[in-house]
Amino acid sequence: MSEFSVRDFYDELARDYHLMFRDWDASVAYQAGVLGEFVRQGLGAGPQRVLDCSCGIGTQAIGLASAGHQVVGSDLSPAAAARAAAEAVARGSRLPAAAADMRRLPFADGAFDVIVCADNSLPHLLSGEDLRAALLGMRRVLRDDGLLMVTVRDYDEARRTRPTATPPQVSETSEGKVITFQLWHWHEDGERYDLEHFQLVPAASTWDVRVRRTTYWALTRSQLTEFVAGAGFTGITWHSPESSGYYQPVLTARRGGPGSGSVPPGKSG
């Protein structure tokens, strides 16, 4: 799909994104705790300069900012980036956030110690060319030996089982019980799929059904490892949910120095 389709998906979802969580603020704190520990182990207590280049409404960025890091957010969706900045202020924190395409990051070379790209954002890029452009841009804005953190779905399992839907999730919200689920429509190549994201929100005596559509590339760990290595990152390591406590597999890597090339695939955590 085009960048406009992805942008539209998240512009439309921005007002309702928190409804996917039973307690969004608790998720903000939990995710910042896990990702913050990766930062501490990799670079020290900091504070570190962090770019969340797919910040959405701030699920990772707000917690990292509240922990004392100097966080900047960017997102393809102007609506999501604006909400992230507002939600941070409402929680007594500060998160400068702007609309920006991760393939063309508008930041200076070496401006950050850490790049975060979470919530399965990278697989919205549907070609090798776009994926390379994004990863090379992330490397450019990282300082030497800076830390990259990417979280994605477990697509090794998904490619094996080819799911067609996710189980409905029921969240208790201020609007009542909200039901969220997805339908997956796999392409003939067996790697990409169109996703329909459904939210059923109580409305008087009926339901307001909200549907958004987008496309993903179900990148396996070996595929993503190869792209990350090809962009000049080193020390590539995968961390499973069982080992990290995070809800998705996490890839960590370091910005290699000048002339860095491909490295062997990283291990699975």
Automatic annotation (TrEMBL):
Record key words, sorted: Methyltransferase, Transferase
Keyword Transferase in record: yes
Annotated protein name in UniProt: Class I SAM-dependent methyltransferase
Family matches, as InterPro entries: Methyltransf_25, SAM-dependent_MTases_sf
Gene Ontology MF terms in the entry: methyltransferase activity
GO terms classed as biological process: methylation
Residues in Methyltransferase domain copies: 50-146
Organism from which the protein derives: Kitasatospora purpeofusca
